Amino acid sequence: MSIVRVREHVNPLSKKYQTPISPPDWSRLYSDLDRPLHLDVGCGKGRFLLQMAQVQPVWNFLGLEIREPLVEQANGWKAELCLTNLHYLFCNANNSLRPLLRSLPVGRLQYVTIQFPDPWFKRKHQKRRVVQPELIEDLAAALAPGGTVFIQSDVEEVAVEMHDRFATHLAFSCMHDGWLDSNPLPIPTEREASTMERGEAVYRSQFVRQ
Known about the structure:
Elements: H1 26-29, E1 37-41, H2 47-55, E2 60-65, H3 68-80, E3 86-90, H4 93-103, E4 109-115, H5 133-142, E5 148-153, H6 156-167, E6 172-174, H7 190-197, E7 203-209
Parallel strand pairs: 1-2, 1-4, 2-3, 4-5
Antiparallel strand pairs: 5-7, 6-7
Helix pairs in contact: 4-5
């Protein structure tokens, strides 16, 4: 697999990323649209979903990423493996999530992951963080009852902010006390694996849609 090098940080508030994506024809992206859908917001290089689609073939997987070269690369890998339950879309989740989710068949979205999002440490930049109240509202409206949201970060401040925003929304209930000790998913992200190898902490939470 060839590797594309791109900028690590992309400002989602810049003019370039203010036009919402037009929803695709989902029936052309997946061979079986009746499968449950797992959405990964900010999928990066897409390798996590590339593996998930192979170990869980009864699910459909959708990755959203704001860096277009990474999306093109990931869709190339998907095509090489002939995976018909996986697709990646180039978009800004903060303005494209709502039209995308509203175009999905009702009840299909059943799992959402938001993993190691850009922390945007400077206070004046924190409005660029992906987990904003509007994003949580969009997920609450689209996620099937009983559906799951899994979030994780190696930056405690970011993890706390994400956790608190989901925990204070009436549609979501945290499934545990404190942080999760381990990842409930069968595949770790590259960032998670490298963080764990260094012996550093990962802060994880899981929520259920009421």
